[in-house]
Design a protein that fits this description.
Layout: H1 12-15, H2 21-34, E1 35-37, H3 38-46, E2 54-57, H4 61-66, E3 73-74, H5 80-87, E4 94-97, H6 105-115, E5 120-124, H7 126-132, E6 137-139, E7 142-144
Parallel strand pairs: 1-5, 2-3, 2-4, 4-5
Antiparallel strand pairs: 6-7
């Protein structure tokens, strides 16, 4: 008689069992300390008053000119060590963004800022998801807003319920 594989070993999802609740809470809590969501950043920037952070676009000048988030500070990653002390207050947290989930430019910018002593988070999804979720962007020609992509944001609601 052959033994049947256990349910947890039968497929890749549970081949490695889930972490304990305490380990999961530590991991996901740490993740939230390092990352910000596009819609949360948009809500903070849209609220009256100071959002409590500076939004930093770490892309090239050509990319910035193609489109960026209104109110963001432009500081390409290669210039952070040289220019951050003149542009950023070390007491104010920084949220970095780059193109999107296929680009680690915001991660490199966050690392460069952290190494200089700044408190920093990375905006998940970057500029791509900012635009895909229907938030306003800006170019030298002015501001624009595209319809939200129904695969990234609810069509008839401001809040995804996340």
């Amino acid at each position: 008689m052959t033994s049947q594989p256990t349910a947890t070993a039968a497929h890749p999802v549970l081949r490695v069992p889930p972490a304990s609740p305490a380990a999961a809470a530590a991991y996901f809590g740490a993740s939230l300390a390092f990352h910000a969501d596009v819609s949360d950043v948009a809500a903070a920037l849209a609220a009256d008053g100071d959002p409590g952070f500076v939004l930093l676009d770490s892309r090239s000048t050509e990319s910035w000119n193609q489109g960026h988030i209104p109110g963001a500070v432009h500081l390409p990653t290669a210039l952070i060590a040289e220019q951050a002390p003149q542009l950023l207050d070390p007491a104010v947290p920084v949220v970095t963004y780059c193109w999107g989930p296929g680009c680690n430019g915001a991660t490199r910018a966050a690392l460069a800022l952290a190494e200089l002593g700044y408190r920093v988070k990375e905006m998940l999804g970057g500029f791509e998801y900012w635009v895909r979720e229907g938030f306003e962007s800006e170019t030298w020609e002015g501001r624009e807003r595209r319809d939200a992509d129904p695969l990234t944001a609810p069509v008839d609601s401001e809040d995804c319920g996340c």
